[in-house]
Amino acid sequence: MLVLLAGIFVVHIATVIMLFVSTIANVWMVGSSTTGTISSGLWLLCNRTCDTLPVSSSDEASLRATQAFMILSIIFSVIALAMFIVQLFTLEKGKRFYITGAIMLVCWMCILIAVSIYTARFTGMMRDFERPHHGYCFILAWICFCFSFIIGILYLVLRKK
């Protein structure tokens, strides 16, 4: 049981770190042009230097929503990690980690909303460049989506023995 708890704890920490990286780094979409590789993220458009991400006024609300939900997912993931540690030392034997699992599933939902909005609104943003494709931050966000769901379900099922 201790190995299972330690494994879940390590995967949860890895999820938090990957959420930080995917939110902060600006490599959600990557393309190339005559001046080199161009990447865009949630905050900046980077070529040789990074500038503010140019978005139309109709897409600005979608970008802000994506940014907000990614930040919320980080917050909920950190809160769930803190709640897991608190519940680990305060719960009686045989009790389940319901609160931690519920918070982690809220994190999962925030990631789903953020990545879905980005996919729907900004995937075609780099059509003017050669070979546009998703960057590692976009892929990390989807990996965090999977991990947060699995961790949330495991917390709901897991009993403290």
From TrEMBL:
<feature type="transmembrane region" description="Helical">
    <location>
        <begin position="138"/>
        <end position="158"/>
    </location>
</feature>
<keyword id="KW-0812">Transmembrane</keyword>
<keyword id="KW-1133">Transmembrane helix</keyword>
<dbReference type="InterPro" id="IPR003932">
    <property type="entry name" value="EMP_1"/>
</dbReference>
<feature type="transmembrane region" description="Helical">
    <location>
        <begin position="68"/>
        <end position="90"/>
    </location>
</feature>
<dbReference type="InterPro" id="IPR004032">
    <property type="entry name" value="PMP22_EMP_MP20"/>
</dbReference>
<feature type="transmembrane region" description="Helical">
    <location>
        <begin position="7"/>
        <end position="29"/>
    </location>
</feature>
<dbReference type="GO" id="GO:0005886">
    <property type="term" value="C:plasma membrane"/>
</dbReference>
<comment type="similarity">
    <text>Belongs to the PMP-22/EMP/MP20 family.</text>
</comment>
<keyword id="KW-0472">Membrane</keyword>
<dbReference type="Pfam" id="PF00822">
    <property type="entry name" value="PMP22_Claudin"/>
</dbReference>
<dbReference type="InterPro" id="IPR004031">
    <property type="entry name" value="PMP22/EMP/MP20/Claudin"/>
</dbReference>
<protein>
    <recommendedName>
        <fullName>Epithelial membrane protein 1</fullName>
    </recommendedName>
</protein>
<feature type="transmembrane region" description="Helical">
    <location>
        <begin position="97"/>
        <end position="118"/>
    </location>
</feature>
<keyword id="KW-0325">Glycoprotein</keyword>
<dbReference type="InterPro" id="IPR050579">
    <property type="entry name" value="PMP-22/EMP/MP20-like"/>
</dbReference>
